[in-house]
């Protein structure tokens, strides 16, 4: 069973009262929301390996260079510890972005980053005169107690008058935390789920959502649209977009699924 792919265009302007997006690769999604240019977890390096506590190997190049996206108003950075969420080129890009939101720990390591603890929020003026509220929401990058190894991560919820409410999971592996997000903030319209069942070899379970867990999250948050990212392009991603699509098809939720074609803009 195949997923529904949103309508595509050849430009990066914002669709009226909606959202326009393009997947660069991995967790890097470019969004145009209420006139703002927003980027998640910037990764623009060419394929290669990164040494650290574990070796992470990138397999595919970015579908678009950073320059093709134009000026970025806001970066939503789930965490800065791992190269598959912030690589060398991504770090260089941060210095050209007015507002970068992440965890308080990332703010202590990176100049120009504003840290938000879970449930903290900030507002950003939009070019069309509205205010976009960005709320940091809890995330857990692995099983309970993983933080000394994986570090602190965050997700985000975006909301503003007249636009869809967007949940961006970040590298979250906890279904229960999304239940808490739903209870506190209500249903969302669009869920951008970092999935891929990432397995760097440090734990007996994946450190991001499996496809089956993503189905559970969709049932909890009830989004009209689910956008899978963080499923392909790195050796430690163990469940690709095809597995994600199959899980949503088996659950009868394939009508909600918009699987991005890397490098191709789509409207929601």
UniProtKB/TrEMBL annotation:
<protein>
    <submittedName>
        <fullName>MBL fold metallo-hydrolase</fullName>
    </submittedName>
</protein>
<dbReference type="Pfam" id="PF12706">
    <property type="entry name" value="Lactamase_B_2"/>
</dbReference>
<dbReference type="InterPro" id="IPR050114">
    <property type="entry name" value="UPF0173_UPF0282_UlaG_hydrolase"/>
</dbReference>
<dbReference type="InterPro" id="IPR036866">
    <property type="entry name" value="RibonucZ/Hydroxyglut_hydro"/>
</dbReference>
<keyword id="KW-0378">Hydrolase</keyword>
<feature type="domain" description="Metallo-beta-lactamase">
    <location>
        <begin position="38"/>
        <end position="230"/>
    </location>
</feature>
<dbReference type="InterPro" id="IPR001279">
    <property type="entry name" value="Metallo-B-lactamas"/>
</dbReference>
